[in-house]
Write a structure and sequence with these properties.
single chain, about 10% strand, 21 helices, about 500 residues, alpha/beta
Length: about 500
């Protein structure tokens, strides 16, 4: 809550009320009526609005990028609720920066419309086919790219992909809609657009290219070649901790004097490193703090392995202990000790240095950010979809460690914690609500693994051949047995003392 909260009725956020907002709240200084679209963004969640949209808003505040406004889009029925909320407030968003020393608010206005959610994605396809759109960006979660979780190959057998191959003009997925739009652009003699992933996954641009081109190749090999040759798919690394929005966050906005149906809270840190590979132009995001670099992979590996894998180190243990927030996990002696020891001994040996930063300093920065009590980032949010996050963030480190002969005991414990959490009960006996698209199958396997730990590692869709690596398999089995027989705290103490 701001130090001097208004006592008057909060003002509903809209274009018409911007001038009436309480003093001290930054707001667009540009004429939003003169903005024209250049970007379609699919997946208008909190992260996008606190990150990519914020960078663009900052450019617009300088009188730049007026032709790069964002049109929001979604591809699932539940996106309609967000669309309704944002259209009711003219696509404005209140961003609330949470810092231990105090919070501040600003209203950003880089988004100017939100497309209707329709079966077959007709409005989305038509908008992306418009040559005025030069970038199509996405935040569709790490597990949303239809890839095999073990080898990363395109999954052409997925029912959604099969549907899009059979109904290319009535697709189900965002990628099918992109292919349909590019087909129309090519047929009309228009140029391509840049497809830009803003999700946390290694080589996100490469993965996006694989999905889009492979899907196109199922129905139109010539179009697939055109997309592969003409479109660009820049890799990027994105970073900002952005909690989910609930009633507490809406109340925080009201404390600033704003009635915002979908405010976004975020930490006082952002980073965006992008390959400068845009086939149809781009905003000058580097003028407002983004970094264009040909070393995105190094930045990406540091962030994914220290921050994203670090989140999984904390969240599963936190759920078992009934700790609600990531900062609370960092305040737990045993869980914080696990985090620091795994980072120091098992993750850092497999992180390359990046220009101007050491991996050791980055661990200290991440620990500080995770410990920020003003960021109410829930363990439940961070633990969501562990099937994608463990395979994407933790297991690649484990494979590198096994190949290099470095310790894996802590990483084995992290996997055992995931298995223990998926059994669906905390140490106090309370129930952990389903928190994974594959929760039912994971829970059934986790319960079997209580008495036969190898059952968990036999999920080859996640672990591949890792069950055959004795040093990992035996350590995992020992940790999971201890978690069930001795409990969380004694097991964490044993690891830290080892």
């Amino acid at each position: 809550m701001p130090e001097s909260a208004p006592t008057t009725t909060p003002i509903p956020l809209s274009e018409a009320t911007l001038d009436a907002l309480p003093g001290g709240i930054a707001r667009p200084g540009y004429d939003r009526g003169r903005l024209t679209p250049g970007i379609v963004h699919i997946g208008v969640g909190n992260f996008h609005r606190a990150h990519q949209a914020w960078y663009l808003h900052r450019l617009m505040q300088q009188g730049l990028a007026q032709g790069w406004a964002i049109i929001g889009a979604g591809v699932r029925p539940y996106d309609a609720a967000m669309r309704d909320k944002l259209l009711a407030q003219d696509c404005l968003t209140t961003l609330i920066e949470l810092d231990p020393s105090g919070s501040s608010a600003e209203v950003v206005g880089a988004m100017i419309d939100y497309l209707p959610i329709a079966e077959g994605h007709g409005p989305l396809i038509a908008q992306m086919a418009d040559p005025a759109i030069r970038i199509v960006s996405l935040t569709v979660t790490e597990g949303g790219y239809y890839t095999d979780p073990v080898n990363g190959d395109f999954d052409a057998t997925h029912p959604d992909i099969r549907h899009d191959a059979d109904h290319p003009e009535q697709p189900r997925t965002a990628f099918g809609a992109m292919v349909a739009a590019l087909r129309r652009r090519r047929a009309a003699g228009h140029g391509p657009f840049t497809a830009q992933s803003c999700d946390n996954l290694p080589g996100n641009g490469r993965v996006l290219r694989q999905t889009v081109v492979s899907l196109a190749r199922l129905t139109d090999p010539e179009l697939a070649d055109w997309i592969d040759t003409r479109c660009s798919f820049p890799n990027s690394m994105v970073d900002c901790i952005v909690p989910a929005t609930g009633e507490a966050e809406r109340a925080l906005a009201r404390g600033f004097g704003l009635d915002d149906a979908a405010p976004v809270t975020h930490e006082n840190f952002r980073q965006w490193v992008i390959e400068d590979d845009f086939c149809a132009g781009r905003p000058d995001w580097d003028r407002v703090g983004a970094t264009f670099s040909d070393q995105v992979h190094a930045y990406e590996m540091m962030k994914l392995r220290i921050l994203n894998a670090g989140h999984q180190v904390l969240a599963n243990a936190g759920e078992i202990a009934g700790i609600e927030t990531i900062s609370g996990c960092m305040g737990h002696h045993g869980i914080a000790g696990l985090f620091h020891k795994v980072q120091r001994e098992e993750i850092l040996p497999h992180v390359a240095q990046v220009p101007g930063a050491s991996a050791e300093d980055y661990v200290a920065l991440i620990a500080q950010r995770f410990s920020n009590p003003a960021i109410v980032d829930t363990t439940r949010r961070v633990a969501f979809d562990g099937a994608a996050r463990h395979t994407g963030f933790v297991l690649p480190i484990l494979r590198d460690a096994l190949a290099g002969g470095t310790p894996v005991g802590g990483l084995a414990l992290v996997e055992a914690l995931w298995a223990r959490m998926c059994a669906g009960t905390r140490e106090d006996g309370s129930t952990i609500a389903p928190n994974d698209p594959q929760w039912e199958a994971l829970s059934e396997t986790a319960r079997k693994a209580r008495h036969r730990p190898l059952a968990w590692l036999e999920q080859r869709q996640f672990y591949g051949d890792l069950a055959e690596r004795a040093v990992f398999r035996d350590s995992f089995a020992d940790w999971l047995t201890r978690l069930w027989d001795e409990g969380l705290d004694p097991t964490l103490d044993r690891y830290r003392a080892g």
